[in-house]
Design goal:
Structural class: alpha/beta
Distance between the termini: 47 Å
CATH topology of the largest domain: TIM Barrel
Order of helices and strands: EEEHEHEHEHEHHEHEHEHEHEHEEEH
Oligomer: single chain
Number of strands: 15
Largest sheet: 8 strands, parallel, barrel
Helix content: 25-40%
């Protein structure tokens, strides 16, 4: 692996960047307010030797739960995801070691304030409590201003957003930050991070393929991105995002360490040229934003249901929440984003309807068959 030129930053007791070991992290997949379930997630990830564990906070009740969890796990390196509620920053900062904010979510609250004012608010809270910050840019929730500025290059919209936010933090005199540029498309992840590094080689990077999906495909997608980037000296901390049952969440850490070990020892997995041909199922890794645990089973059921269509180039996205679900299904041929009791079905950006969990698979199959008929002619018989 090439040396990494990034500066070192401090996340609690953990140092990343430069010649520090690449840290491996994950996120609790439970509702933060469910203390028993979230504590169990933290235990599972700690037992898997996660370097950083992230949880989401989006309400005062989540903050109260975080206070209890911090007392229960005083030595854990904790990161908090502010979701759409940046105003919680000064309340959660004393309880965690890193704050993650998404530039694409800052416009939701207090629209009379500028983005810079909101970033300053987060920075002030982080600085006062010795917290690191992650500027987390996601393909499905890019700031609308950047999407409008770069309508034909979604990757550039992500990169420009990240670079501009880095400049803001620099101007505010805050250097203890890391950046992530994530996409469900492996090649987009590689491209975005390479573009960013050309401009800001000094900034530590958090790598991940968001919504990589179910194993083994999700592992392969992630491995491709990490092998390309880490071997080039790009990446200071990683997260493997897999759609897994809660009790198996430690696999994300195990897979991440296995990939890093293989890269360091020169073992690279070849990928057939036609690997990305045929059906592509994108699924998010599940987190505390998910409002119904049936989401993980649904993702697995979608894969089984569509086995008969494996040869057709078709993308289906299965998303577990209303925060990222609507935006991150826009680029899929068919998208499902899950609420507490119903699943929203989309065809590209068009809403097709909302269905109960026990109805959605039948509706999905109708749409899959229709797309195959429209694009490829009659569906070839497969015995199903």
């Amino acid at each position: 692996m090439k040396p990494r030129p990034t500066r070192k930053i401090q996340i609690g007791s953990l140092v990343i960047g430069g010649d520090s070991p690449i840290a491996v992290q994950s996120m609790a997949a439970t509702q933060t307010q469910d203390l028993e379930a979230t504590a169990r997630q933290i235990e599972i990830l700690q037992n898997a030797h996660a370097d950083v564990i992230r949880i989401a906070v989006d309400s005062d009740k989540d903050v109260e739960a975080l206070k209890t969890l911090r007392k229960q796990f005083p030595d854990c390196v904790l990161s908090v995801d502010l979701q759409e509620n940046y105003k919680l920053a000064p309340i959660v900062a004393p309880l965690v070691n890193k704050i993650r904010y998404n530039p694409g979510h800052l416009f939701h609250l207090e629209k009379d304030k500028t983005i810079r004012e909101k970033v300053q608010f987060i920075v002030d809270a982080a600085r006062a409590n010795d917290c690191a910050i992650r500027i987390g840019v996601n393909c499905g929730s890019v700031d609308p201003d950047y999407k409008a500025r770069y309508p034909d290059d979604s990757t550039e919209a992500m990169v420009r957003s990240a670079v501009d936010h880095c400049q803001m933090l620099d101007e505010m005199g805050f250097e203890n930050y890391v950046v992530s540029l994530k996409d469900s498309d492996t090649n987009q992840v590689i491209d975005a991070n390479r573009r960013f590094v050309k401009e800001r080689p000094d900034v530590p990077l958090h790598l991940g393929v968001t919504e990589a999906g179910l194993p083994p495909e999700g592992v392969i997608k992630t491995r491709i991105a990490f092998e390309q980037l880490v071997s080039e000296g790009i990446g200071d901390t990683i997260r493997v995002s897999l759609t897994l049952p809660n009790e198996e969440k430690g696999q994300e850490i195990d897979v991440g360490r296995e990939i890093l070990k293989d890269i360091s020892e020169g073992r690279f997995r070849s990928v057939p040229k036609n690997f990305f041909d045929g059906i592509n199922i994108i699924a998010c890794p599940s987190c505390s934003r998910v409002e119904n645990d049936k989401f993980v089973d649904l993702a697995q059921d979608v894969r089984k249901l569509t086995e008969y269509a494996a040869k057709y180039k078709l993308t289906i996205a299965v998303m577990g929440c209303r925060v990222n679900g609507p935006g991150e299904t826009d680029d899929a041929d068919l998208g499902l984003w899950c609420g507490p009791s119903r699943v929203n079905l989309k065809k590209g950006t068009a809403e097709l309807g909302s269905y109960a969990y026990d109805e959605i698979l039948g509706e999905l199959k109708k749409e899959v068959d229709q797309i195959i008929q429209e694009r490829f002619g009659a569906l070839e018989p497969t015995g199903h």
